[in-house]
TrEMBL record:
<dbReference type="InterPro" id="IPR009057">
    <property type="entry name" value="Homeodomain-like_sf"/>
</dbReference>
<keyword id="KW-0238">DNA-binding</keyword>
<feature type="domain" description="HTH tetR-type">
    <location>
        <begin position="4"/>
        <end position="64"/>
    </location>
</feature>
<dbReference type="InterPro" id="IPR036271">
    <property type="entry name" value="Tet_transcr_reg_TetR-rel_C_sf"/>
</dbReference>
<feature type="DNA-binding region" description="H-T-H motif">
    <location>
        <begin position="27"/>
        <end position="46"/>
    </location>
</feature>
<dbReference type="InterPro" id="IPR050109">
    <property type="entry name" value="HTH-type_TetR-like_transc_reg"/>
</dbReference>
<dbReference type="Pfam" id="PF00440">
    <property type="entry name" value="TetR_N"/>
</dbReference>
<protein>
    <submittedName>
        <fullName>TetR family transcriptional regulator</fullName>
    </submittedName>
</protein>
<keyword id="KW-0805">Transcription regulation</keyword>
<keyword id="KW-0804">Transcription</keyword>
<dbReference type="InterPro" id="IPR001647">
    <property type="entry name" value="HTH_TetR"/>
</dbReference>
Length: 220
């Protein structure tokens, strides 16, 4: 017996299609073909292609580890948010190019995750506006690094505007591939540096960080 045709089944088929053939293969007609129906049949369950895209992102987010954990403080909550986004991009490298573009920015963080992260920052001494700025800064880290290490742009050769022969440090830096493993290390470094700065600003503001807040953790 075939699977019931509904919005979730359509999103799953679309994700599998793009995983296998890339974003350029995505169309209502092609997804319909994968499901054994016409592309027009999908419009009984989805309003348009953008609706499909939103459901694809939401479907991927639903399969990720829950964020935030009940026992996590503000720092661990934000670190998990950043690393969880990376997991999504690593599983589906096309996602960063599809979900983040000049005309589209899709937030895959759950409403509960966003609310909890912001509240934990406020409880730690941030103003609401500052909490929002920190939240966006953390969310931007995996997006930016995934664009370098995981997206289609990462498959292209790097061309340097400065043709001067590089020094030994620059040459060694440029010789390293921006692959997924390096991207993960870069993200952990960036997140820890950012959160160190937040912790320091809270210490200066309140004189002491919220009890129980851990210091920087080493990458595993």
């Amino acid at each position: 017996m075939g699977r019931t045709l509904d919005a979730a089944a359509i999103a799953d088929a679309a994700i599998a299609l793009v995983d296998a053939h890339g974003v350029d293969a995505l169309s209502m007609r092609r997804v319909g073909t994968e499901l054994g129906v016409s592309g027009m049949a999908l419009y009984r369950h989805l309003s348009d292609r953008d609706d499909l895209l939103r459901r694809m992102v939401a479907r991927i987010a639903s399969e990720l580890p829950p964020v935030p954990a009940v026992d996590a403080d503000w720092r661990e909550t934000l670190r998990r948010l950043g690393l969880t986004a990376w997991i999504a991009f690593e599983r589906h490298p096309w996602l960063v190019d599809l979900a983040v573009s000049p005309t589209r920015l899709m937030d895959a963080t759950s409403t509960v995750g966003t609310e909890t992260a912001l509240q934990r920052l406020i409880d730690a001494g941030c103003s609401p506006d500052h909490a929002e700025e920190i939240f966006v800064a953390v969310a931007a880290q995996p997006i930016g690094i995934a664009r370098i290490a995981l997206s289609r742009a990462a498959e292209r050769a790097v061309h340097y505007a400065d043709a001067t022969a590089p020094g030994p440090l620059t040459a060694a830096f440029r010789a390293q591939a921006f692959d997924a493993a390096r991207g993960r290390r870069l993200l952990e470094t960036a997140l820890d540096a950012l959160l160190d700065g937040v912790a320091a600003s809270l210490t200066r503001t309140s004189g002491a960080i919220t009890p129980g807040t851990p210091q920087r953790k080493e990458s595993k």
